[in-house]
Amino acid sequence: MEFWFTEKQTERFGITMKIKRTLHSEKTAFQQLDMVETEEFGNMLLLDGMVMTTEKDEFVYHEMVTHVPLFTHPNPKHVLVVGGGDGGAIREVIKHPSVEKATLVDIDGKVIEYSKKFLPTIACALEDARVDVQVDDGFMHIAKSENEYDVIMVDSTEPVGPAAKLFERGFYEGISKALKEDGIFVAQTDNPWFHQDLITNVYKDVQEIFPITRLYTCNIPTYPSGMWTFTIGSKKHDPLKVEATRFHEIDTKYYTKDIHNAAFVLPKFVQDLLK
Which part of the chain is the PABS domain (predicted)? Predict the structure, then answer.
C-alpha cells in the first residue's frame, strides 16, 4: 500500500508526495510537529501540516534568507535569527567570517530537538561556539532588544498560530529598534500567487519604517507555488548597491553574486503588488 502526503496550500490547490515512513509525530505546546521520510525530498519537517523544510531543497531558502542581507551589510558581527529552529539559517550565517555571534530564538524547543535528530545536515551548526540557541518567544525577544543586532532574519512559519504576530507592523517597528544604526532585516513573505495581500501589506509597513525596502524572490519546489518572496528592510545599505569586492567566496548551492542581483528583478505582476 502506498502512502502519500498532501499539503493543501489553498482550499483548491495542494502539493503531494510519496512517503516512505513517519519518523516522529508529536503535538507540542505550540503546534503539530511531524518528521517524515519522503521518496523524492528526503526527510521533511511538517508543522501543522505545512512543509517547513526538506533535505533536498532546503538550501535554496536558507541561502537566500541569509546571504542576501549578510553580503549587503559591510561588517555583520551580531546576527539574530527569529524562528528557524531547524538550524539551516544558522548554518549559513556562520559561513561569514565577520560573524562573531549568531543568536537563534525559536519558541518551540521540540523543533530544535527533532531537527538535530532527523535533519542533521541542516541543524549541523547549532552546537558551534559562536551560536547562542534560545528557546523563547521571538516577538518578546525583539521587544526587549535595542541597538543590538547588525542583521535580523525572520525565519518564521506562515502567518498562522504563534507566527501570526511576526507579520505585524509593531513587530517590524521593534526590529528597527533592535537593529544598530546601519542594521538590516529580512523576512520571508510567502508567495505572490496565493498571498498577494500579505506581500502588499508587509511591504507597505516595512517601507514606512525603513529608508530602503526591497522585495526579492527564489524558487523552492516544496513551498506553495514554488515561487517565494523575501522582504528586506535596511537603514542604510542598499542590497542593489553592494560593491563587487564585498562578495567573497562562499560554499553555496543556489546563491551567487549574480543571483544576488537577479533575485530583485521581479515579474510585472509582482511589481504591481508593491505599488
Answer: 2-235
Tell me which CATH homologous superfamily contains domain 4-52: Spermidine synthase, tetramerisation domain (2.30.140.10)
Q: How confident is the model at residue 168 (pLDDT cuts 50, 70, 90)?
A: confident
Is 128 tagged catalytic? Answer: no
Give the per-residue pLDDT at 17. 95
Cα Rg for the chain, rounded, in angstroms? Answer: 18
**Is position 162 annotated in a ligand binding site?**
yes
Average pLDDT over the chain reads: 95
pLDDT band at 69; cut points 50, 70, 90:
very high
The pTM of the full predicted model, rounded to 2 decimals, is: 0.96
pLDDT at 163 over 60: no
Q: Is 245 annotated as a binding residue?
A: no
Does 24 appear as a known binding residue? no
Q: How far is Cα 244 from Cα 22, in angstroms, rounded to an integer? A: 46
CB-based contact 133:169 (threshold 8 Å): no
Answer whether 135's CB lies under 8 Å from 167's CB. no
Q: How confident is the model at residue 167 (pLDDT cuts 50, 70, 90)?
A: confident
Which of 81, 10, 41, 82 shows the shortest CA–CA distance to 221?
41
Listed by start position, the domains of the chain span 4-52, 58-237+253-274
Q: Is 222 annotated as a binding residue?
A: no
Q: Which of 108, 155, 190, 205 is catalytic?
A: 155
What CATH number matches the domain at 58-237+253-274, 3.10.150.10, 1.25.40.10, 3.40.50.11540, 3.40.50.150? 3.40.50.150
**Residue 134: beta bridge partners?**
105
Model confidence at 216, pLDDT cuts 50, 70, 90, reads: very high
State yes or no: 38 annotated in a binding site. no
